[in-house]
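Task card 7
Instruction: Convert sequence to structure tokens.
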Amino acid sequence: MPLISHDPDTGVWLLTTPSTSYALRIDETGVPCHLAWGPRLTLPEAGALIVPAVESASSFEGRPPVGEELPVDGGTRYGPPSLQVRYADSSRGFEWEPIGHQILDPASGASELVLEFRDRRYPLHVALHYAVRADTDVIERRTVIRNAGDEHLDLLRADSAAWTLPPLPGYRLSHVTGQWSAESQLRRDALPFGETVLTSRRGITSHHANPWVMLDSGETSEEYGRVWSAALAWSGSWRITAQRTPDGLAGFTGGVGHEGTSVPLAPGEEFATPVFAGLCTDGGFGAASRAWHSYTTTHVLPRARESAPVLYNSWEATGFDVDEASQKALAERAAVLGVELYVVDDGWFGARRSDRAGLGDWTPTPERFPEGLGPLADAVHRLGMRFGIWVEPEMVNPDSALYREHPDWVLHVPGRARTEMRNQLVLNFARDEVAEWAYGWLTRLVGDHGVDFLKWDMNRAFGESGWPEQRDGNDRLWTRYVANLYGVIDRLRADHPGLRVETCSGGGGRVDLGILSRTDQAWTSDNTDAVDRLVIQHGFGQVYPARAMSAWVTDVPNQLTARSVPLRFRFHAAMCGLLGIGGDLTRWSEEELAEGAALVAEYKKVRHVVQHGELYRLSGPLGEEPTVVEYVGEGGAEALVLGFRYGPRHGLPRIPVRLRGLTPGARYRDARTGAVHHANVLSEYGMRLDLAPGDWSSTAVHLVRVEES
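Output:
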């Protein structure tokens, strides 16, 4: 069956993925309308879903608020508009007039349907894009809007897509919320009638919400049931509005910006929205997550098939007290542990002695690095490790040479105070000269000092979001800022093909499919407490894969929570993603160093399973049962089971854990004990995890399939 097919008699367009179909048509009034999103259909079957239009039972209802491919502002539409335009004469609205279509087959392997429209009165053109691939059920949708006239107009709302669900007896909404150091807290609640808005007004993706949603009937579990989900590839402010209508339907629309902002369009200018990718899956929330993980590693992350190195970061050991001698000493200890990437954190540049000064002056401090960073980078490389460094290109301290020279470069509103947070202001990356400045020093830093890895941080949200020098600057900056940010990273990676980048924003404040398409991993949270991290990682992994999730082992008592858990527990929690170490190695005992080296070596034996395998959540975090996650390697050849128990509860039964994803009928050998297990027994009757008595017990079981002779 072709990926894209069309029936000219019914006007139905059918998009076909490996397991699902998506059907739409342009109705008699020219409006693109939704027909189906779910199990596979043929064109005749999709055509059978066309329902003749009926007159509204009431003059108060208007067009149904759910069911159009991109609901617009205009006519008798009263739901949340996906497209809202203000023309030069201050009128609003959009009336669909179809003008053609294209089917594109780009080299990337995706087939793309483009439906083209214009407004019946004003010179505004809208193109709806749908991209499908033969290897994923994810459908990529976006919208391109062009001002074809000779007068300025404003897009008050320009969403990427609207998604419609089939009629169900009930709906449940899954999403994440949180705050700094408590990101990715998973919520699953009944979708209320009316409109539910998820948004970031902060200029970044934010710690407080993430631009993805999942909806189900309310009966779906980790292993059973159908899930409809979507994720927005955008790293600035965003909004997703889900709605449940009185007539029992549900849908959602999403895109860039938040209320009160707009996208200006000059004559001849066009705005291409980011992708709002959607996915329908059977097999519960677990199958939905695995489908997103596969899509992200195959079509989003730049080099996902690489195995990420074990990382050490100097922050917890040195804070701002960074110099060449102490970093070399730390690097030597890190190398003994088996670390493969050594990262110098904040404090290496300018007058940086605290967070009060120096941001913006990106040259190594002469008294701390007399010959620059080169000698340290050379020493790290001689130890067999890659060299990485922390940067925060989007920020400036008022106490810096950069700010004294360019106070106009920060986001500001004339006559208003410039609000400092963490003693810093936000540079206006929407200004081309700011982006060019950042690109210039970054490419020199990487090239001149042998930098292999950048930890790109962003430690505060927008404030006084003004750009007074630019016409429409207060609106234009929200999208131009992100576009220029993307451009700087893209140019850097083109200049330095070996460079790897981690996205960070005070932890998980900027994680989305947009930034992940140009970085290699994400710093999940500034909270490194192993117990809290299991909860954060549970929410992160609903959409984003372990291959993108940085996780560190740090010292106890934890700096944030004051909790103490064993080194082994901390390692096992961090082994659920990209293993990193952030403790003060100068304070580790010989016993801790030896145990840490053994656990690093253990991770290296299984990281291909974690980073490239499939994730199964066998039990959730912080329940009465132990938390258990399983990673299954390609083709079921290997599995890694990580189990965590927080404390004994007398009288609770020890229930075996049923594994998933193993090859039926095969046998698996425990790489540590040599014991051989039958896959059918492990899957249907379970495995008893060897969790030691007492608090904070953990285990890692590596199973390797026995190849029968």
